[in-house]
Sequence to fold (399 residues):
Amino acid sequence: MSTYKAIEPADINTATSFLNQLIDVIQEDISSSVSRRKYQVFVTGGLGPGVTSSLFQTVYDQDFTLQTANAVFDCTIGIFPDSDITSASLVGVDAAGKERFPSSSLMMREKLDNYRQFAQLLLGDANLPFKTPYGGATQTNIDAALFIAFKRLFSRDAIKRETFAMKFYQTASLYNPANLQANAWTTSELGESIYYDANAGTNKFTEFGGTVANLYNAANIDNAVGLLFYERGIAVLDLEKITSGTQFISGTIDAITPSGRHDLGGPATETYNQSKFIPDFISSGSIDNVIDHICGTRFSSGSLSAITFQNVTNINSTLIFCRASADEFNYSSNPTFADANNNIVVIDPGQEDVQQTFTFITSVGLYDSSDNLLAVAKLSRPVEKNPERELTFRVRLDF
Fold:
């Protein structure tokens, strides 16, 4: 049976601690179409079979059709509405204030809306541009942005400072000029770069979306390529800086044509129709086209780490010290504790005047002022209590 004692305010204390967990996203999880989920929510009509695309894609840690799969991050792109990329394709604005673009510039309004959404969330104003380096005397706009938004399961309360690193390839696979007829490609992606949040521990910046740091190219610490918002778990990368501006882009993309396809650019050896990643590909391709290219080639494919960081889980604790002084909790209200004559039952009969009473404490219950049980703390083993011992049990509630 239970014995009760009031807990005084002096017996209650609070504490704050944190827990770090290493997150490692491998290349295959990002590049594989099996672990990258699409959401076909954009559909065109009119000419040809039309175009369907996602507004973003989600990267999982395994085949996303499995029940054990965990969503790691969402990935999408955005274009700053007042950038040269936008103005080069913009036809005009209608009476409702909507931007109008030609059919060759696919999903431009959605790309602008993506940028505005992240600007509203992280900068507090949908019309503001992201700028790098943050806090620098001279800043440049991020006109074409790659947004990587980590899920709460992995980013937790924040990303830990100076632990973020991402391996990215500035150029994609190239045609082999000696074997164009066979459509042959060179071995792999080129221009491997590491981007990380250097000096984030000393240069602490705060924005509407929380604390923010610059992402730098490890090969050139003066080259800020993006921003990392720690509490939001969102990386904003400048595609004009992390991709090669000299490489030509060629391939077949979705388009509003009778065939539903369009050939973008040509081999690098040809002098006609040479297209660049920016502005040609990012304007002409659907969001799925661009994300498929970035995730499928720019992170490469294999078992190496593509993105790694440590997260931070804040733990708020209430410590309750349950004290049992020498003359407390030595008796029990259990009926078997005393005999019919109300004498304490001792181990050795006839030794009632010699042997001391004792109990074993097994649990601590916490009650409110109305005697409602709120929580129970179980001891790992029974602890003996007698008039010669004072005990203090610390109950920790984490939340």
